[in-house]
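Q: Make up one entry.
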Amino acid sequence: MALNAPTPTGSPLLSVSDLHVTFHGEEGAVEAVRGVSWDISPGEVLGIVGESGSGKSVSVSSILGLLPSPPARISGGPVMFEGRDLLAMNEKELRVIRGNHIAMIFQDPMTAFNPVKTIGHQISEAIRVHDKSVSRSAARARSIELLSMVGVPGPEARFRQFPHEYSGGMRQRAMIAMAIANRPRLLIADEPTTALDVTIQAQILELLDVVRHETDAATILITHDLGVIAEVADRVVVMYAGKVVESTSVLDLFADPHHPYTLGLLGSLPRLTVRMDTLYSIPGQPPDMAHAPPGCAFAPRCSLSRGRAECRERVPELVPVGDALSACHFHDEMETATQSVAREIGLDIRVGQEAP
C-alpha cells in the first residue's frame, strides 16, 4: 500500500529528460510525446495516469526501443538508467537490458505470450537467454518456483500448459512470473488490470505489491484508473496530450490537485457517499495531435481558462508549486476552482489537508 511505502532515497534509478516521440505517416507527423520528463527512485512506485491517447504507454515503450522505427522517431533525452543512456544504446545492448534489468508486464498477456509454446517453456527461455550458464533443468525448477510464487495453482502441471489453457487472471500472474524471473531493478506494468474483473484486479494489485517488496524493484504503473493509483502509488505523473501536466505525491494528488485536468479526473470518480443521477465528465474531447493547438492543449475543455489569451496562445511550462509540479498558467487559482467543483459535485477534497 502506498501509505506504508518507504520514502525513496538516493539517486534516481531511471531519469527521463525532455523525451519526444513523433510518428510519421502519409498525412504528416504526429507528436505523441512532447517533452516529457520524470524520474523514479529505487523501490518507488510511480503512477502514470491520463486518458487514452495521452502518451502514457508510448513514452515508456519508446525508452525500451519497443516502437517500430519507422514510423516512430524518438528524440530528446537523455534517458538515464543506472548511469547509461537508453536512447544511445543499439538493439543488441537494449536486449541485454529488456527482461533482465527492466521488465514489462503487458496489458494483454494473451498477445504477449507465444500461443504455440507452453508457459513453462517461455518463462524458462526468459531465464536462459540472459544467463547461458543456467541448465534446462534449473530453469524449469526456477519457472515452477516462480509460478508458485505468483499464486498459479498446480504449478508443475501448469508449467506444461499453453496460454489458451490459462484463465485471464492466471495469464497475468504468469506474465508477472516471467517479468520477475531475472530479478529486474525496474518493473513496468502497462494497464495490468484493465481486462480483469474487479476481484482479480485486487488480487493482481496485491501480488504486484508483494513482488515489489520481495524483489525491491521500482515499479512504473501505467493506468487510467485513479482508484488503482490511490491503492499502490507513491508518486503520480499526470499526462495530457503528450505532456506532463502535473507531478506530485499520491496524497497531494487527491487532497490538493494543482492542475484543472487532474481536478477533472478526480471529479469523474464515482462516489458512494453522494447520490448522483449521472457521473461528472470532463467536457469536450482530447485534441487531435496531428493538429495540436498552439497554446495549452487542455484550454478548450478547461473551466479555469475562461477563454483567456494566455491559455490559447502560450504553452504552459511545468513549474514548481509547493512540493508538486504543475503546467498551468493559473495554478494559483486552483484552490478556488477545487472548492467550487467539490461543492458542485460532492467531491471529497479538502485543500491543504491530508487526504482522507
Q: What stands out?
A: The first strand starts at residue 14 and ends at 25. Residues 114-183 form one domain.
